[in-house]
Predict the 3D structure of the following.
Amino acid sequence: MCDNRDSLKVVKFGGSSLADAEHFLQVKAIVEAEEGRRYVVPSAPGKRFPEDEKVTDMLYECYRLADEEKDITPVFDRIRERYQQIVDGLGIEVDLDTEFTNIKWAISHQAGRDYAASRGEYLSGVILSKLLGYHFLDAARIIKFSDNGKFDSEITNELVGAALGRHVHAVIPGFYGSMPNGTVKTFSRGGSDVTGSIVARAAGADLYENWTDVSGFMMADPRIVKNPETIDVITYRELRELSYMGAGVLHEDAIFPVRFAGIPINIRNTNRPEDAGTMIVAEANDSADARKITGIAGKKGFSHINIEKDMMNAEVGFGRRVLEVLEREGICFEHLPSGIDTMCVVVSTKDIEAIKDRVIDEIKKEVNPDSITLEDGLALVAVVGRGMIKSAGSAAKVFGALANAGINVRMIDQGSSELNIIIGVDEADYINALNAIYSEFMS
């Protein structure tokens, strides 16, 4: 897939990939290793070591100080020094004095939180374009939001496409665009990832490379499962399932533009460019010996409302009335496993905690159940994999692993696509459950 080294690629580099001058040089080597890497999207410099500060965090602090009418100079000077160290380490001639003067003045005069935060990517772009000899395209001129603050995908696609058409090579800072009145507006989550995806779509790229500090996605959280294997290929649908369950993967907003255009994503490691990383694709044609599962993810902090009533299935509107209670209280449900005479509604504990008694009373009034209980302390674990669809016994392996580990299953939910199995366990069993299931499928 995309084996042609000259195929058009958009490459995005995260903050860890641009933390200092050494990393900037690594980025330069990666970009220049393939002619097809023509459009580059940088983030603001991240941490150089665990106790270090991210540039974006320092910029947010400058905004806070300015908003409180305090002097931003001490913090702003640290930002200036950080970038000057990068420029000096690269040995390039780029004068940022005017940029820093303008940025400091704007932040001090309350140009806005989004403007302050965006300057990290902006300055990274200025430096990287000089280092690579690429044209610099300010994202504020080509990435647009509407008056209500919603990203305007179609106008942006036209503007970015036209701008890229005028330049064979370009650097476009991530994370931000602009409102109709010209003020800077940032994306809420995974901003630079979103920009990279937007640029890839507009460029008609063959591949979107997302470079970070890991060699792709892991099959499980490495903080819980020791040395999990890397996912070689994952489909967009699988990615969505794992992302929903809290796995550290790309946010959905960063996926949509390239998914819409049918462009695959390759997650790569800046520090280990020789690693193949993880490919994210629309469809995958796996061999017979491919893994049965793609990944395991989960999270804690759920409650479940258990409702029992004889002949519930014959009572028209029963489920609707239950869900209307939650809707009136502003509560979203996570899962809804049910039987003939039973219904279980899984919700976030933090959403219902303060109003649980009122919710139970309202449900009693609406549907007059035989019994209703609400229990906290539920953790959800999702086993996701396209291989499970054609593999008999996948569910048996999941439940067998949990039984052998002495873990009680409190809830089961499987989608009609058979792409995933979601089980609920006590929060105290959460870590053991993840490890038991991973060991069962990977042993």
